[in-house]
Amino acid sequence: MANMRFPDEIPSAFGGGGGGSIFDMAGTSCEGSGGDKWGSLGFMDLLGIHQDFVAPSLFDSFQPSILPPSSPPLPVFHHHDDDILHELHTDSKQQHLNHQAGLLSPASTVPESSEVLNNPATPNSSSISSSSNELAANDEQTKAGDDEDKTKKPLKPKKKNPKRQREPRFAFMTKSDIDHLDDGYRWRKYGQKAVKNSPYPRSYYRCTTAGCGVKKRVERSSDDPTIVVTTYEGQHTHPCPIMPRGAIGIAPDSSAFGAPSFIIPQPMYLNHQQQQQQQQLQPYIYNSTPSLNITTASSNIIHPSFPGFLQEKPRFSNPNPSALSHRDHGLLQDIVPTPMRTEAKEEDQ
DNA sequence: CGAGTTTGACCGGCGC
DNA sequence: GCGCCGGTCAAACTCG
């Protein structure tokens, strides 16, 4: 670990070591489409609830509520809390980007980032309006612009804030045909960029609600095009505008808990061994069926912005590998831990 | 016509 | 100092 940097976003292991939280899931949109359970408790409500113990930052919602009509709901969520953490930690864009592209590095080391995560210290909520800062510093920004028309743009004021604080990010993976999953919020795309080492472009979205500076990045995994990596940054300052109740991706009849369940596709990257390993490594991961249980090594990791279904309750908060394992059986395997994937990839090579 | 998307350019951080 | 690259801006364009 010494010389290893944590991938900022996608990364690392999930949880590994106990650290991180996890969640994968799929879902629904803001309010949980799952059922009454969620019905009364809006996603945002949950947010509020959890906000206390979560760093003010965190991201917001997400969820693939819309799944391709033809395909069964199967959002495979990968939570990358750690990742985010990492991001917070390092802030090294390139690195995390690279990781993203390659989907990360081996999880061997578990970042202690979880602590970071829990540590609200990081981002202050105020940061939500990151844009404000940006604008603020600008005045002079035009500096360069002055040199005659640089061709076109009048040169907009860009942020100069030295070290603008990045809000915590939360990344997760979803197996879906569509890139931009409907999480109940309204997003406006403000940019798209080609990602290094990846044939797929990365799209940048911003919450269209006034005053809400939440952003999200969406890109497809270069490893597996069917996997969409979504990274949220910031925290919504408003309630979820839309709450599709029957969100896609969730089976109404879900399981035992009455919560939504996901249908997960076949194991994607892991071989048997890896799967087993995975199970061991991530006791916290919850399986899809469980109705979105999000478990985290430390409960506070739950992001306020998570859709309710995600935060429902750490039923398995006390991650007992063995306990989970049986439930995960057949499900867990579908979850693709980034690190694992990486390994798998390497093996291929 | 307003809202959202596309797209090329600019800015700033980081590594070399 | 330079170049690369991620992130963002905003004009132009598209769509309902």
TrEMBL record:
Q: Which domain of life is it from?
A: Eukaryota
Keywords, in A-Z order? DNA-binding, Nucleus, Transcription, Transcription regulation
Q: What's the main place this protein lives?
A: nucleus
Q: Membrane-spanning residues where?
A: none
Region listing for Disordered, in residue ranges = 105-171, 315-349
Which spans does this entry mark as compositional bias, Polar residues?
106-124
Domain WRKY span(s) in chain numbering: 176-241
Entry's PANTHER family?
A: WRKY TRANSCRIPTION FACTOR 23-RELATED, WRKY TRANSCRIPTION FACTOR PROTEIN 1-RELATED
- Protein name, please? WRKY domain-containing protein
The keyword Transcription regulation is annotated on this UniProt entry? yes
Q: Which residues form the signal peptide?
A: none
Locations listed in the record: Nucleus
- Which residue stretches does the UniProt record annotate as biased composition, category Basic and acidic residues? 140-152
Q: What are the Basic residues biased-composition ranges?
A: 153-163
Checking InterPro entries in the record gives: WRKY_dom, WRKY_dom_sf, WRKY_plant
